[in-house]
Amino acid sequence: MSRLSIVITFLLVIAAVCMSDNSWAHQQKESYSNVLFNERTGNLEVQHRFYLHDAEHAAKRLFDSHADLLKEPVSREAFAYYVQDKFHIADDNQQVIELNFVGTEVEGKYLWVYQETQINHQTMSSFYIKMESLQDLWPSQLNYINVEREKQVKSLRLSAGDAWQHLTLGE
């Protein structure tokens, strides 16, 4: 085998390893959540968007080293329950509002987790919010939250260790 053949073979092996192994990809360490007061349905709807790559790493560390969020609905559901445990909304009296799990969806490079609850949000002038997803694994994780009501949007950026954030609506 010539020296050139050895070099080409070596480069092809390295390229194949790089393409097949997601662990070399860069983690984003950020998530985005939308909280929507749906006027039509009367529901408070929550949509969490995670980079699939970050969620895969987290699932493998949190539940199962063989978790596959892309192919296994059970793995996605386990991740969704983890997210539900780390995201909370409370009313003005700091009573936690129970959110119902709606489902998950993989869309391109994102994993979505959906929640909702029936609530009389017309009477809500403010609420508290806390989002700690993935911050127990990666302290540099940032969780961005957009809250939309009556075409007004308010945004929060939550870091590890942040306390409950109080958000006033309608101002």
What does this entry look like structurally?
There is one protein chain. About 11% of the residues have low confidence. The protein is built from three helices and nine strands. With 171 residues, it is of the alpha+beta class. The relative contact order is 0.18.
Give helix % range: 25-40%
Enumerate the spans where pLDDT stays under 50 for 5 or more consecutive residues: 7-25
Sketch the topology as an H/E string, one letter per element: HEEHHEEEEEEE
Distance between the termini: 74 Å
Please outline the major beta sheet. 6 strands, mixed
User: How many helical elements?
Assistant: 3
Instruction: Indicate the mean pLDDT.
Output: 85
The proportion of residues in beta strands is: 35-45%
Question: In one word, what is the shape?
Answer: globular
From the alpha-carbon coordinates, what is the Rg to the nearest angstrom?
A: 20 Å
Give the number of DSSP strands.
9
Structural class determined from secondary elements:
alpha+beta
Spatial strand sequence of the major β-sheet: 4-5-2-1-7-8
Write the SSE topology.
Layout: H1 3-20, E1 30-37, E2 43-51, H2 52-62, H3 73-86, E3 87-90, E4 100-107, E5 110-118, E6 126-131, E7 142-149, E8 152-158, E9 165-168
Parallel strand pairs: 1-7
Antiparallel strand pairs: 1-2, 2-5, 3-6, 4-5, 6-9, 7-8
